[in-house]
Write a structure and sequence with these properties.
Number of helices: 13
Oligomer: single chain
Order of helices and strands: HEHEHEEHEHHHHHHHHH
Helix content: 55-70%
Shape: elongated
Strand order of the largest sheet: 2-1-3-4-5
Largest sheet: 5 strands, mixed
Number of strands: 5
Distance between the termini: 28 Å
Length: 364
């Protein structure tokens, strides 16, 4: 290609075009056709009739449902509050009841209701639906935590460009400390949105701030470390890790039981799922499962610490090589000035790339 300017533009178009493809594959693959996939439900009763009924439901649903029986209604409520089942059906000739926990998943509760409403209709009686863990009135669908995840994620990965590119002249330990400071601020913004602004969290706001900060710190440290190696491709990598794979597997809109196996598997250990499920545990389920979610976020934070440590070692080694080469260049005065000009040109090019990267990230 003869025109350097045209080649430069076309090179920078690769990132948004790959983002377009990746976002389409991820979002449409995860959200377009939600179907039950081993959705866990329970049938209350120990009599042979209840077990036969549970087996008939399982036979009719196939792999869409995993059906178990429990002895009492109270046991079914406990399973719902620990999020081991999505719904529990209490058979009755006069008043059948379906127990759900909307705060765990509004879509899951809807899916279970679609399964058991026709069952009650066959008996000629209406189905009573009881929500044992309803979200707050300010967030009736319980999906506000997903959009809180989006806000915190954008604040985190967009800050990577400023810390990694614009802050490239700073030592890695300084960038890492700045990343932790930014994470605390992003967590504070998340807590502000969740509490005083939109009232998603009516209690434990400090816990929401802590989890948001922990989640953000993991993203920022991973991004700052990766930037040493990937440069302008860091933006695309961050989008893949913390948007395409992260939002789709978080369980914020659809629980893993309503998605295919790929996103359901990611839900078990991805950091977005750790944040969303941890916030649900904190706000709606009496801290049940909170420790596991926090450890998931800690694991991602440790991964970020490891990546930044490797990047710091690489930068130190690279700087040592450059300094070792400098005295030899300075010993020949005639070549020193052209070398200085080349270094200045390289610095200006790096600054221009950093500015373009920041603009590209903010635009995304």
């Amino acid at each position: 290609m003869r025109s350097p300017a045209l080649r430069h533009v076309l090179t920078h178009l690769i990132t948004p075009l790959l983002m377009c493809l990746g976002m389409g594959l991820a979002y449409m693959g995860a959200f377009v056709t939600p179907e039950p996939n081993h959705l866990p439900v329970a049938v209350v009763g120990t009599a042979p009739k209840a077990k036969v009924f549970a087996q008939s439901v399982k036979d009719a649903a196939g792999d869409k449902l995993d059906v178990r029986t429990v002895a009492t209604r109270a046991a079914a409520v406990d399973l719902l509050r620990s999020r081991e089942v999505t719904g529990a059906y209490v058979p009755s000739a006069k008043a059948p009841e379906l127990l759900v926990a909307t705060a765990a998943s509004d879509m899951g509760a809807t899916a279970v209701e679609k399964v058991f409403t026709p069952v009650a209709a066959q008996e000629g009686v209406p189905l009573k639906v009881t929500d044992v863990a309803a979200p707050v009135a300010d967030d009736p669908t319980g999906q506000g935590l997903f959009f809180l995840l989006v806000a915190v994620s954008i604040g985190s990965y967009a800050s990577v460009a400023a810390l990694g590119a614009a802050g490239a002249a700073l030592a890695m330990r300084v960038r890492a400390l700045l990343a932790l400071g930014v994470a605390a601020v992003v967590g504070g913004i998340g807590a502000l949105l969740a509490g005083p602004v939109f009232h998603l969290a009516h209690h434990d706001l400090a816990g929401v701030w802590g989890m948001a900060s922990l989640y953000s710190a993991g993203i920022l440290l991973i991004g700052v470390g990766l930037h040493t190696f990937l440069k302008r491709w860091t933006t695309l990598t961050m989008m893949v890790l913390f948007v395409m794979l992260n939002f789709t597997s978080s369980g914020g809109l659809f629980r893993p039981e309503l998605q295919n196996g790929f996103f359901g598997t990611l839900h078990a250990f991805w950091n977005g799922a750790g944040f969303v499920e941890g916030a649900r545990s904190l706000l709606y389920f009496g801290d049940d499962g909170l420790a596991r979610s926090v450890w998931t976020l800690v694991g991602w934070l440790l991964a970020g610490v490891l990546v930044t440590a490797v990047a710091a070692l690489y930068e130190r080694t690279r700087t040592a090589r450059q300094e070792a080469a400098t005295p030899a260049a300075q010993s020949v005065p005639a070549v020193a000035e052209p070398g200085l000009g080349a270094r200045r040109a390289a610095e200006e090019e790096a600054a221009q790339e950093a500015e373009e990267e920041v603009e590209e990230t903010v635009g995304v």
